[in-house]
Amino acid sequence: MEALLSLAFDNIASKDTQKIRKGLRQIEGMLAQICLASGRSKPSTPAHRRNASAINLSEQPQHAPKKLGALSEDLAFREFFRLQEGFEWNVAMRVADCLERLLGMHSDGQNDLLILSALSNLQGLLLLHPPSRTIFGREVYMNLLLDLLDPYNCPAIQSAALLVLVTALLATPQNTRTFENMDGLLTVTTLFKDEETTQSVKLKLLEFLYFYLMPEAPVPAVSAPNTAMGLHRSPSKLVGAFDRRSSTVSGDDGGGPTRKGIRSQEEKQHMLGQYLSNVDALVQDLQETAPFTSVSC
To answer: Which GO terms describe its biological process (predicted)?
Structure first.
């Protein structure tokens, strides 16, 4: 896996768009191998291989997503998670740096496609390795996502950037504070009120505002062993390993849940009310419909 990542990193660090495209596809392929089941219920026999050309395409096994619990037993995922713990092999940071370079390049249709590919990879990386979300607690990376919400970007990029922004803020209150400190609410609401913004993007902006207004929950603070070692000792506690690592990265020293850096729903409602006039209605709708049950902001 190190050899594949090294090759992909070299490609996405290039100024050649063909190499960048190749590197992003290499990362996407690696993520697909981790997330998708093989689709084989049993090894193929020689007869199966000889007659493969005669099999109807609709009858071939489909690649289904793996269940989260199954990932804890997956050797490729274990290795991927272990590598992400170090600076040298962290893919999310490399893809974010690639995005920054793409934004500085000449804007055209091909460049937009590369940006969309990078955003898609980044969303998957933040979901597979939640501790990587902490990079968006740094202003340089949060500013990158906010730049992608500028009106001059195409609607597809704006929508994809919103999905990554939600993933970056998910269960990471410190990132939400960075978002607020960098006038993220002003950026989002300005785009929402802009007459040029498409309806599809406005819908995603509205969904983001619902997400932002959700009550925040502190990350469980417990004594955290090294995550990679924890995965080997207790694979069935994969989700717990995510939470433990998140609390360690954020500098929590244990001793029970902490509300440091947490804002109440009322506080966020007041902040958003500086830019929108109908926030009370949004909160009421959020409380009545509960669109994001079982999700912590």
So the answer is: cell division
- 61 within a domain of the structure (yes/no): no
User: Is residue 106 one of the residues assigned to a domain?
Assistant: yes
**171-189 confidence digits (pLDDT tens):** 999 999 999 999 999 999 9
**How distant, in Å, are the alpha carbons of 111, 215, 271 from that of 292?**
34, 11, 21
Please, which residues bridge with residue 65 across strands? 36
How many independent structural domains does the chain possess?
A: 1
Share of the chain above pLDDT 70, in %: 73
What three-state secondary structure class fits 15?
coil
Which pLDDT score, from 0 to 100, does residue 295 have? 57
Confirm whether 48 is domain-assigned. no
Number of residues that make up the chain? 297
The answer to pTM > 0.90 is no
Residue type at 201 in one-letter notation: V
Parent domain of 150:
2-34+67-289
What mean pLDDT is reported for the chain? 81
Q: Is residue 97 part of a domain?
A: yes
Q: What CATH number should be reported for the domain holding residue 168?
A: 1.25.10
Cα 14 → chain centroid: 23
Residue 158 is encoded by which pair of tokens? 């704006």
